Amino acid sequence: MPFVKVFQTLYASSGNAPPQLAVTRRLVEAGHEVVVLGHEASRPRIEATEAAVIPFRTVHPTMDSSRPETDPLLDWQVRSPIAAGHRLRDRLYTEPVPGTAAESAAAIADLSPDVVVLDFMLFGAAIAAEAAGVPAVALVHCPYLLPTPGVPPYGLGLRWPRTGLGRAFQAALRRIGAREFRPVTEAVNVERAARGLAPVDDWTDQLLSAARLLVFTAPQLDFASRVPLPGNVRYVGPAFEPTEEEWTSPWPPEDDRPLVVVSLSTTYMRQEDLARRVLAAVGDLPVRVLLTAGPALDTSLLRPGANTVVVPFVPHRAVFPQASLVITHAGWGTINAGLSCGVPLVCIPCGRDQPDGARRVADAGAGVVVSKSASERRIRAAVVKALEDPGLRAGAARMATALGQRDGAEVALGELVDVAGGRGALSATVGEEGPRPGAE
């Protein structure tokens, strides 16, 4: 395998980090040189892969989404889904473009990499790579979310359309979404013009010009896999960072009650009240309950039942194989981890892309969806039903088989080396092998 020099950008806000860091680690282990542009809060996780780190200076440099005071998104402050969507558009997509483009351009000029690997949300790096003539590969840690004809528009938690009226309605929503994201396109074109590049019609064209878009899940879990996609899109499967940590049950060995794991995000989303209702809902059930609190949840406000143990952290892949059910906010990292272990999910999405993840889990027959405003009684009923439903266990087993077919980090390694070597570095021509997302 030829030696490859890699420049990578990482937006480590939550579940998007582990699959990308798994790729970083695999690259380093294979003998390649990797330099990562990332936030200071993620430095220990990046350095654990033995990659070099360049800290962001201008793109939310103090970002740590596990704490409200250092979370740059603040979408949990607003009640309106539209207002929350605008905050995500502005702070997650639009505002980072100039800083990411400038800092990536400086790093590319200094490092002369063979390939640029970018978190798909930091597509300013793709602008810098294109201007420098370096092939780019975008890592997509969630389902393929670029607006695509026939696929429910991402961000609304919509079901797959089954009627002509439903398809027409969703097409109208995609058109509205395209208008709402014009500020992103404008920001992209400002940076492209500054580097002598022609404007794009839509911000998604910047990502679609990458040599590869690698999607870190199984196609069986993604609505977009049901329609033709551009030829540079690859489903590579989930990628997990290795863990040598084992989970030791705090309950006696003879306690054979089902284990229910509660995991409600490592990023702050004002989930304290939800955690309280979940623990109240399951506190008197004949189950063992393990709440992995993470850094974002203040456990001093909780009153766990006698059947409940609260821990700061347990690696999902260490405990999920022993679980009968996972109650989750439906972040994609938890979805991939839970279903890869064949565990059904009760999804209680809190916002962002979580309603879409939950909808895909339910469509796969591997879990159920409960509103984040649901009462304790409603949550309890969903948990009891999920524990008793053999269909959900069968659905989770099917997804475990699908997710287990490929090691996303290993497949990504091959794709990156292929692109860097010039054998697969296609400058994606939109429309040749699939529709341009957003076109109707």
Summary of the model, kept short:
With 440 residues, the protein is an alpha/beta fold.
Describe the 3D structure.
The chain has 440 residues and is of the alpha/beta class. It has two domains: 5-239 and 407-420, Glycogen Phosphorylase B (Rossmann fold); 259-403, 3-Layer(aba) Sandwich (Rossmann fold). Helices cover 38% and strands 13% of the residues. The chain has 15 helices and 13 strands. The strands form two sheets. Strands 3-2-1-4-5-6-7 form a seven-stranded parallel sheet, with helices on both faces. It has a six-stranded parallel sheet with strand order 10-9-8-11-12-13, sandwiched between helices. The chain is globular and about 65 Å long. Mean pLDDT is 90; it is low at 423-439.
Task: Output the keywords.
440 residues, globular, Rossmann fold, disordered C terminus, alpha/beta, 7-stranded parallel beta sheet, 2 domains, 13 strands, single chain
